[in-house]
Amino acid sequence: MNPLKKLLGQTAVYGLSSIVGRMLNYLLVPLYTGMFDNPSDYGVVSELQAYVAFLIVVLTFGMETSYFRFIKIKEDKDEVYKNSFLTVIVINLAFFLIGIFFNQNIANALLYPKHNEYVVLLITTVCIDACASLPLAKLRAEEKAMKFAGIQIASILVNIGLNLFFMLLMFNKEHPEQGVLYIFIAGLISSLVKPALLYKEFLQIRFRFYWPLAKEMLTYAIPLVLAGFAGIINETLDRALLKRVLFNSGKDISYATAQVGIYSAVYKLAMLVSILLQAYRYAAEPFFFSQVQNKDKNKIYSRLMNYFVATVCLVFLVVSLNIDLFKHFIQNESYWVGLGVVPILLLANVFLGIYYNQSIWYKLSGQTKFGAYISFGGAFLTIVINLTFIPTYGYWACAWATLIVYAAQMVASYLLGQKYYPIKYNLRKFFFYLLLSLAIFFICKGIAIESQTLKIIVHNVLIVGFVGIAWVLEKPSPTISK
Questions:
Q1: Lowest-confidence range among 311-315, 329-333, 441-445?
Q2: 187-220 b/e (C-beta count within 10 Å ≥ 16 → b)
Q3: Is residue 479 part of a domain?
Q4: Is residue 441 part of a domain?
Q5: d(Cα 55, Cα 48) in Å, to the nearest integer?
Q6: Is 105 within the bounds of a domain?
Q7: Residue 148's domain spans which residues?
Q8: Is 117 in contact with 183 (CB distance < 8 Å)?
Q9: At residue 294, does pLDDT exceed 70?
Q10: CB 342 within 8 A of CB 266
Q11: Does residue 99 belong to any structural domain of this protein?
């Protein structure tokens, strides 16, 4: 089978769980924004969920990618899996015990001194998710995409169902902290679905640790952990910094948290690019490793980049030029004040997707230290820009920082990749798709059309034109051999 078609098929299946999950979570945005009259209450949920993203990176400790690499180069694949799994379990057990013991101290540090139960629920949830990551990675490596998708969707549906039950039937708007608690309880129960459906994997694990292999895998994984942690700083730290910096600059804590709620709500509208990216990454990482011995691998990677850039630019246009439709996902108009940052965040996520697509070069070559360098450079920029400009520009500073950082990482990864693991990408097509999408966006924004219906028609006709041009340029060519 054409390897690109194989990747497309797997992306479709993995994407089923990712896209369905994200789209269903999309439906939670109108639920939350409709139920939480004050954006500050939604801001609490958004801020704490941002910390979860940090913890997942640390607690999985790069073992998923390390597992994918070492099963390709080691004969005893079962030994690789056991070492990966046990490493994650030990790390999470230690973190869980420490976190539970110091839960009140953590709550105080997060400025939620009266709600240490939030901390307990989040720590428990994130540990369960991290421990389930290796059995799920094993399913991906074995190309059991349907089972993987089934488990993910089951967990997602439980989460959605519990959210609807708690928020619509039990939540009292006069006690918003009750709603926050319900959301975290729903998250915990839905996380338990994964190990419940993977119970055979947990029961079969044997506590035999082969240290030489573990050491080799950890050496490979540590730079990935550092890179991933720094990457999460770029993705989510802005929400935590937004509240803290505004509060420290003299703003009321309720106002600061409300700004987090507004920014987080409109950020969801930029997440369609991330939804596509998540689905793609589930299939792409094991696929890239499987093509290492293919003599046409660089042609495959280059062609894949063309498709990817065209697709993410299309998503940028669809959302940014139809923002008047997408904004209704946010039920409460008090959040709409932040819609202006959506195109900035969409473009930022386009650059992030391209960076992730490029980053395979340092994973394939084993030079994962460069991923850490790039991510730490981005993290430094993120912190500096946000700390400098949030007091004056609020969440606009967060959006521009995100765009600048992702663009810088994309360029840095390309330049380093061409030096250490050259892949001849078609830069002309890259710039053409990017500039064409930006030109269409600015043309549409520059033309004042009073009729909302006519405006939507004109915008989408231009989007269809973009699709047509991309289709002509990317017509299927003769099959690339395996």
A1: 329-333
A2: bbebbbbbbebbeebeeeeeeeeeeebbebbbeb
A3: no
A4: yes
A5: 11
A6: yes
A7: 3-473
A8: no
A9: no
A10: yes
A11: yes
Structure tokens at 98: 């420490």
Nearest to residue 412, comparing CAs of 365, 435, 437, 379? 379
Give the pair of three-digit tokens for residue 253. Answer: 């804590």
For the chain, count helices (H), then strands (E).
20, 0
Q: Letter for the amino acid at 294?
A: N
**∠51-54-60 over CA atoms, to 5°?**
135
Cβ-proximal residues to 283 (8 Å cutoff; 6+ apart), any chain: 7, 10, 11, 13, 14, 15, 140, 145
Place of tokens 């999408």: 437
CA distances from 479 to 2, 166, 476 (A): 6, 52, 8
Q: Which amino acid is at 237?
A: L
User: How would residue 399 be classed by pLDDT, with cut points 50, 70 and 90?
Assistant: very high
Residue 293: C-alpha distances to residues 142, 176, 360 (Å): 18, 56, 15
Would you say 294 and 367 are in contact if contact means Cβ atoms under 8 Å apart?
Answer: no
pLDDT at site 388: 94
> Helix, strand, or coil here: 179?
helix
Number of domains in the chain: 1
The residue among 154 and 9 whose pLDDT is bigger is 154
